Every structure is written in C-alpha cells, then in structure tokens.
Amino acid sequence: MTVNKKNKRVWRLYSLNTFFVSLLIFVSVLLAAIATLVYERLKEFDVILDEISTESIPAALHSNRVNSQVNSLTYLIDGLAQSSTQASRRIANREVSAKVSEIMAMIEQHGKDEYLAMHIQSMKDELEHLNRLIDQRLLLDDTINKRKTALYKSYNKIMDFMLSPNHRSNLSPTSFLWTIELADIVATASESLTSERINQVRQINELVDTLLSKQYQSIDNLPEKMKTKATQVTVELQRLLLGESGMINLRSEQLRLMGRSIGRGHFVRNLVTDIANLSEFRSYELNNSIQLETLKTSQRIKQQIKLLGLLSASAVLGLLIAVYMIRHRVVNRLNKLNKKIQSHIDGEPLQVDIRGQDEIADIARSFRYFTRTIEIQQQQLQELSLTDGLTGIANRRALDEHLPTYLQSAIRHHWPVSLLLMDVDYFKPYNDNYGHNKGDECLQQIAKILTRCKRRDEDFVARYGGEEFVFVLPQSDNRGAELVATLLQQAIEEQRIPHEHSLVADHVTMSIGIATFHYDDPISADQLLKNADTALYEAKNLGRNRFVSFIE
Predict the structure, then answer these.
(1) Count of beta carbons in the 10 Å neighbourhood of residue 51
(2) What are the residues whose beta carbons fall under 8 Å from the beta carbon of 175, sequence distance 6 or more?
(3) Measured between alpha carbons, how far is 157 from 248 in angstroms, rounded to an integer?
(4) Upper half-sphere CA count for residue 161 (Cβ side, 13 Å)
(5) How far, in Å, are 38, 151, 452, 480, 492 from residue 455 at the CA level?
(6) Of 467, 468, 500, 538, which residue is the catalytic one?
(7) Following CA atoms 355, 358, 362, 365 in sequence, which dihedral angle do they give, to the nearest 10 degrees?
(8) So where are the chain's domains?
(9) Backbone phi, then psi, for 467, in 5-degree steps?
(10) Is 467 a catalytic residue?
(11) Count of C-beta atoms within a 10 Å radius of residue 270
(12) Tens digit of each residue's pLDDT (9 = 90 or more) over 180-195
C-alpha cells in the first residue's frame, strides 16, 4: 500500500459497510432458522386464528357497531322531541328514520336477529307516533302565535283609536277606565302563554271570562260615539281568547300535547336504552367467547415459547456481541456528533472534531458545511423578511417587531414616543392614470424623502402597507412630532411629484395622523396605531394634505 492515507480511507469505508452487511446476513439467517422451526408448530394455530378473525371478531365488531348506532339514536330522538320548527322536525325525523334504517340493515346484513329486530320495529312505530305528536304541537304553536299576533293587533288598534287627536281631548274618566280594564284583560290573557300548568291556564280562562263580562257592562257607561267601537273590540277579544279555538284553550291543548310529547319521548328513550342494553349483552357474550378462544391460543403459544427459548438465547447472545460492536464503532461516535450539534443549537460555536475517513466522519463534515450555509442563508432571509422589496425601507413585520420595543423602552426610561401614520392622497387615481410603474416610482421617492428626514439614528421609518408609511419618533412628544410632520410635508411639497388627478393639489401630497405614547398612561402598540389611524382619518375628512394629532 503506497498511499497509506488513501488506502486507509478506502479500507474503513469498506469495513464499516461490510460490518453492517455481515450483521444483516447473520440476523437474516438466524430469523430464517427460527421461522423454519416455528412454521410447523404455528400451522396448527391457523384454524383457530382463522375462526377468530373471520367469525368471532367480525361478529363482535358488528355487535359493537350496532350498539354504538343505537346509543347515537338517543341524541337524535332528543333533537326530534325538542324541535321548535317544522323544518327542524322534518330534518330530525329524516335523521332518525335514516339511523333506524341503517340499524335494521346492519342487523339483516349479519344474520337477522328476530328478537332485536322486533324491538327496533316497536321503536320505529313509537318514533312515528312521537313525530305526529311533535307535528301537532308545532301546528298548535303556530296557531297560538297567530292568535297572539291578532290579539296585540286588536289591542293596538283600540289604543290608537282612543289616543287619536280626535278622542284624546274628549277622553272621559269612564273611557280611560275602560281602556285600563282592556289592557288588564290582554295582560292577564298573555300570562297563559308563559304558564306551564294547565290548572293555572284554566284559572286564567275563568278570570278573563269574568273580566270580559265586566267589560261588556262597562260599555254602557261609555260615550255613544265609542260604544260601537268598544263593542267590536270586546267581541273580537272574546273570539280570540275564549272558546274552543281561543288562545287560552289552545294553550291548554298545547300543554297537554307537550306533556304527551315529553312522556312519549321518555318512553322512546327508555325503549332505545333497552335495545342498547340488549345489544351490549350480545356484545358481552361475543367478547367472552373471543377471550376463551384467545386464552386457549395463548396457552399453546407459551408451550412453543419454551421450545424456542434455547434458540432465542443463542440469538440474543449473538446480538449482544453485535450491539457492543455497533456501540463501540458507531453509537459512541454518533453520540459525540449529536452533543456537538446540541451545543451548537444552544448557541456555542460549532466544533465538529469527529476524526476518521468513514461515513460518520463524512456526515460530520457535511453537517459542518450545511450549518455554515444555513447560517448565511438565515442572515440573508432575516434581512429580506424585514425589508420592503419595493422601497428598500423597513416593512410591516419590522414595525411589528420594533414598535413594542420602543414602547417598553419609553416606559423604562420615562420618555414619550410619537408615531406618524402617513397616507399618500388620492394614490389610487395616481395608479389608475399614470400606471403601476409610475405608482411604484412615486412610493420609492416618498420612501427616500422619509429616510432623508430622519434626524436621529433611533428614528424608524417603515412602509405600513400599500401607500401608507409609518414614522416612529422615540423621545419625542406631540409637539416634536408635529414639527417632523411639517418637515415631511414641506419635503413632499418641494419634490413636487406631478399628480394632475388629485383633488387637493397638482402634485402628490400626504395626509398624516399623529399619536403619542405617554409612559405614565401606557397603551399597546396596536392601540397606538389605531389612535394614529383615527387621526389620519380625521386629516382626510378635513380635506387631506395636512396632519392631525390624536386627542382623547
């Protein structure tokens, strides 16, 4: 070997590769030997496992699915029972029917269970009855609502009549008292709509009947020109409130239907619970059967494990030797490389000193090169991510990172921070008439003007978005901010970028909103921007080409 270094590298690469290939061949031969010995003994388990996988387990899974579907039916039934509209009732009924059909199909698919199918058919009949009750209740709800609307409409008509300019001045005490009694009848009748007990509704019915009788008697004491109208209203109220189709009797019928619906719903839920319990019991029996078969199989496997123990011990010994070699030749060096990488992640300088000419050393060198490349790229990406591509100044993301820092520093050092939010006036007409290229050039010129107007290194200029810019002035109060705003507008004025389509000047102008952060009354960065935006909006409302300071 005339070139020792080169030959050494070739030998080590070949040696490491040969080592793992040899280990793989050894393990493969060992596993093949074990598989050959086990094959004949496991063959007898094939029939048992086939029975479990093709009969017992599918049956158990089917039973569990049926049980799950039956349990989910409870929630659908609750949705049907609690339906508040015909549309929701129809939707809930379709969902319940679909779920019942799905359960029936599952039962028939895996061998029909007559007993379970009978229970589900009974449940289906009860669900149809429950659906009819809910339908009747909703129809009755609609009728009651119509009666209530008609009642309030009639009441409003008579009140409008009584309080009209023609009758208000001539409203006698008896007329006023009759109006009060009328309002009492309406209020008493309305109580029946909130009562949840039939006895209370009946009492309200009797009370309203009595009040209407008194109301008829009071009509005789009214002025002649009001008697006809009062009689019509009283008759209309009696028709709407009393009688078989009156609102109060309909409320009684509504409460009876609600009670029947609730009772029928409870009965159906109990029936579903019984079906679920029956399905769960069937599932329990199947699970017990599977457990017994599994136990028998497990006992036979234990016998086979004893036979294979000696061979496995030999295999383990060989693997331990291989593991030792892997740890000594591979793992220790990989751990060392990993520690170096972790140290670099924690901020320490990268020092990968893995020696050798094998694959691990190549990985270390590649990682070192890769890390250096990533660091350079990250630095470049960081700069790009914080810079606006068009204007070359900071972007919105840079503003979001720097502004909270400025505010925290202001609180710590007890100084104000002012923020100028600037918007190019009538920039959309500029873009539309001069073209987007000219629009971009305009924004670039404005960005240069803003940058030139920075008086201090700590002043911060950013493009906020579109034609909006931000100027952050640390250690500057509102007065200083207004001076800077004046300077900015003068600089824009001197530049005289042509803008024939502006409504305020023949050149580009800028509106500015100023907001100041006070350390003794701190606000968030978002709130400071909102305040500046409010001031900017006010500047636009005042005619643009001006600055306005935010005042709370």
Answers:
(1) 12
(2) 162, 167, 222, 223, 226
(3) 21
(4) 16
(5) 86, 76, 8, 11, 16
(6) 467
(7) 10
(8) 396-549
(9) -100, 20
(10) yes
(11) 10
(12) 777 777 777 777 777 7
